[in-house]
Amino acid sequence: MRFEIIVPVVLALSFVFSLAGVGSATAVVPILIFLGEEFNHAKNAGLFINVISSSSSIHHHHSKGRMEWKIAMMIGIPAFAMAPVGAVFSKMLPREIVLLIFAIFLIYSGTVLFLSRGKKEERRVSSPLLFLLGTLTGFLAGVLGIGGGALVSPILNHLGMDPKRVARITPMTVFLSSIAGFATYTAMGDIDIYLLIAASVPAVIGGYLGAYVMHHHMSAKRMKMVIGAIYYILAVKTIAVIMG
What we know:
The protein is mostly helical and about 240 residues long. The protein has helices at about 5-20, 25-35, 40-65, 70-90, 95-115, 125-145, 150-160, 165-185, 195-215, 220-244.
């Protein structure tokens, strides 16, 4: 295991992705695979990192009185219920199929962020739509080991929510879907304790620093552009892994 690479990579990615309230596993999973980690161990480590970094983000937002608890739980509860289903289903799929779904998902998320435009007035998102979003998020979180924030964030932006408000909603969805997925993968034996230890401390630091910078120094437009570009880069890297 390459601790000298994993620690700074997790620190950097947790920082960047928490700028938009998105779990860093979206980036960590393919990079760990590229570094030679076993696929399901990488997914479980990514989920664990999301649990840690989203906890840090939730604490920061809550301490500032900015958490959007009602909407966060309307998405987070179905996500929590469906993540184990996705994790079990992923064990039935070939590795290449899961990675292909992952690449398509990244391209979609990046495209939505680039095409979405700021609106003067927010749109209200209906409760059934939030529940459906949570259900889909949890399932994909379990399949891909990503926590679900990379799906929730661009869709809520596309539906008309302010990006900074979205960043206060997605950490709870990430936390609930990730902890359920992590527990499921662990129960199935897909766990590397040393990998989890190496990732946890930088994930906490990066997640907290990213949330702080987002509130004080990051514009909504810049936030969307940065995260969208990262999604595209990771999609290319994921396809490269598939082609091997």
